[in-house]
Amino acid sequence: MIGNASIAETVLHALALAATVVGIVGFYLSAPRQQWLSHPLAGRRSRMIGALALLEGWLLWSVAMHPVTALFTSLTVAMLLLTILPFAAAARGAVLARREG
User: Fold this and answer.
1) Which of 6, 19, 25, 89 has its CA 20 to 30 A from that of 80?
2) Average pLDDT for consecutive 10-residue bins of the chain (101 residues)?
3) pTM of the shown model
4) How many whole angstroms separate alpha carbon 6 and alpha carbon 11?
5) Domain spans, the chain
């Protein structure tokens, strides 16, 4: 039983992390100054999907831990991604520019 609970909890955490990543990426790609796409995604639709995915991630984490802990876990993952995505886009642009010229 202990092994099964551990696997189920791991899967639950992975699903919550994936939902949070989808939510933040949805928000980021709908921003007018994002650097990953040539044109941002449709703002209202992407933000709605992002918000629902973030809510889903929080709910999934709330199953495995206290809701306040789940909220701060979601916020921590969100802050990490919102910090990394612009820098990764800039690095990607630099690599592509180096290849072209």
Assistant:
1) 6
2) 71 94 92 87 88 94 92 94 91 86 69
3) 0.84
4) 9
5) 2-98
